[in-house]
Amino acid sequence: MAFTEESQTFLIAAYYRELKETFGDRATAAFVHAVRQYGIQRGSRMAQRAIRDGQPLDYVTFCRYGEWEPSREILQAGKGSRTEIAQMSPDYELHVLSCPWYQAFEKYHALEAGDLYCGNLDEAINQGFNGAIPFRTVQTKHTAEFCIFEVRDAGITVQTDLSHRPGVVRGFDYHCAHVFAAFGGVCRGIFGEDAGRALMQRVLDAFGSEFGAEMAAELEKMAEQDFLTA
């Protein structure tokens, strides 16, 4: 097995399930806070690389410094995202018609977690990158037929290069480890070191049951790295 969008979604869903079962009414707020902190950290790494390269923190740079691209396994399975640009100028509007994360949230019977995750993630990444960019998640597939993301005065034309800069994309082993570490850090911060560590272990055990002990050990090892510095 390989780390993919599905294994990342499994971790997100497992954290939500464990939070709900353990902390009840406080779980939703804790989960949303974890999603936002994860997104802010991701956006901050993007901004660090862009500033290092002398690039402006605008939406074009945001696109070019994104850390994600679809995994080979998801593409080979025909589960990649399908998108269309509904409007380019002056405001950029992107529609996501199908999405591997939504499909994975369905697979793991975790649409409630998916609604919270998808509704908060992208705006949090933008906040970490440059919160002054007027980026908005208008709707997601959890509440509508397709996702809509809108950026006011994005400065994008048909000639704009939105391809990834070399070296900025991270594999899903990294993304999964970041989810595991960031969500776990928020849980420890809110509920205390012992309770947070115990919850992380239950998530890791569930991951190992689903994807195997070898992947779980790799996830745990990779989660030890610094995710705050690009």
UniProtKB/TrEMBL annotation:
Keywords per UniProt: Hydrolase
GO molecular function: hydrolase activity
Xref: InterPro entries: ATC_hydrolase-like
Any Pfam family: ATC_hydrolase
Name of the molecule in the record: L-2-amino-thiazoline-4-carboxylic acid hydrolase
Taxon lineage: Bacteria, Bacillati, Bacillota, Clostridia, Eubacteriales
